[in-house]
Amino acid sequence: MRFDGDFSMTIGGKGVAGAAGTFDVLNPANEQVIGQAPECSREQLDEAVAAARKAFPAWAATPIGKRKELLLAMAGVIATNGEELKRLLTSEQGKPHADAFGDVMGGAYWLQATASLDLPVTVVEDTAERRGETRHVPIGVVGAIAPWNFPVILAMFKLAPALLAGNTVVLKPSPFTPLTTLKIGELLRGVLPDGVLNIVTGGDELGPWMTSHPGIDKVSFTGSTATGRKVMASAASTLKRVTLELGGNDAAIVMPDVDVEKVAEQLFWAAFRNTGQICIATKRMYVHKDVYEPLKDALVAYAATVKMGDGAEQGTQMGPIQNKLQYQRVLELIEDARAKGYKFLVGGETSTAPGYFVPVTIIDNPPEDSRIVQEEQFGPVLPLLKFDDLDEVIGRANASDYGLGGSVWSADEDKALEIASRLATGTVWINESQHLSPLAAFGGHKQSGVGVEGALEGLLEYTNTQTVFVKKAAVA
């Protein structure tokens, strides 16, 4: 099969062109068109949902052991085609080849690891009179909406548990990064029964069509908090179940006992991995005054060694912002900081290269109420913030509408654990960042989301509970 063209949707196990035409997909490193994705019509969405509904009874009745085998088969197909998929992913997403390969293979791993989970059965009563069990049964058709920053692995966050639980799926990738997902759909035709996995692509209208569709029973969405609110409101009309993994404004707290030379590189990538386009990237870095100056110098020195450019070029460590809208938002935040007179330690200028490139930008101790501190930048811009009092900095870290993740950096593990227990976030890392596991629950507090992904808790998000009582025959 071709990986550089012939992109089609997957509906009912068949390749389908877009009835509404096609739309261009750009390479963010040079703004050149790299392919055309099919534009799904409303009628085709109806067809995809109908195919999923038709396939649901047989898939739900398939023994979970067989569903596990098919998840492993999916993982094998993706991994076997990892090299081709990574190149396609880099061309549409912008990230370096190594990171794109990690995205693809991470998706395969997520399928593989999720297949190790089981749906529990809880005995709630077992007496001479009756036996009662609570089971977990599939919900029905899941509408999965994946984002553009990690198109493959974040889609598998949804597909793996949804399919394992016995649901069928209609998946919509971001219109900015649809091509790799379409090719994965093509590769998986014949691996899964027809209609179990359907993949549709389109523009701004397709998402709302899905979230309000009466034939979709649950929506799983990853994206911004603002869009998540719209998804939740739309799903409410039919009381759809929702899982929402939304934005974050993650704080790192760097204690005075750290070894600056050892942690500087780790702290840099905690903020700038994937060009800062990660919901769990460090977006506010609180540094104790005793190590503020040396850490500031170390971060600036390390930034000078990092190569930014086209992800397809050898040696590139950071790619462009993925799309023009996000690029303009990041530039707007930089311009606001410049207009307010904040000090730039590095960066802050506009790139003259083609593509959506924003140089690494670090801002020196801006005010706590500044936009660059209070808003999620989702780009390569980091405010460094000085603190002295621990109670005060924990309060500053928690004073956010978001509560996705956070990190604590200290040589004193017990002290770090104590600080972690006081952070109002779904995940806290100590002396590392961004580690996720398919066997660990991941979700946000406050406006960073509803529900969780990963682990048994995430699997159960794709089920309804069913309690069965059996009245025992009277004993003679």
Question: How would you portray this structure in words?
Answer:
The chain has 476 residues and is of the alpha/beta class. The chain is 38% helix and 22% strand. The protein is built from 15 helices and 22 strands. The strands form six sheets. It has a seven-stranded mixed sheet with strand order 14-15-16-13-12-18-19, sandwiched between helices. The protein has a six-stranded mixed sheet with strand order 9-8-7-10-11-21, with helices on both faces. Strand 7, helix 5 (153-164) and strand 8 form a beta-alpha-beta unit. Helix 3 (82-93) packs across helix 4 (97-114) and helix 4 packs parallel to helix 5 (153-164). The radius of gyration is 23 Å and the shape is globular. The N and C termini lie far apart (69 Å).
- Strand percentage: 15-25%
Distance between the termini: 69 Å
Describe the global form.
globular
Number of strands: 22
Summed up:
The protein is an alpha/beta fold and 476 residues long.
Give structural attributes.
six-stranded mixed β-sheet; 476 residues; seven-stranded mixed β-sheet; single chain; alpha/beta
Question: How is the topology of this model organized?
Answer:
Elements: E1 9-11, E2 14-16, E3 22-27, E4 32-38, H1 42-61, H2 64-80, H3 82-93, H4 97-114, E5 122-126, E6 130-138, E7 141-145, H5 153-164, E8 168-172, H6 179-188, E9 197-199, H7 206-212, E10 218-222, H8 225-236, E11 241-245, E12 250-254, H9 260-272, E13 282-288, H10 289-303, H11 324-339, E14 343-346, E15 361-364, H12 371-374, E16 381-387, H13 390-398, E17 402-403, E18 405-409, H14 413-420, E19 427-430, E20 445-446, E21 449-450, H15 455-460, E22 463-471
Parallel strand pairs: 7-8, 7-10, 8-9, 10-11, 12-13, 12-18, 13-16, 15-16, 18-19
Antiparallel strand pairs: 1-2, 3-4, 5-6, 6-22, 11-21, 14-15, 17-20
Helix pairs in contact: 2-4, 3-4, 3-6, 4-5, 7-8, 9-10
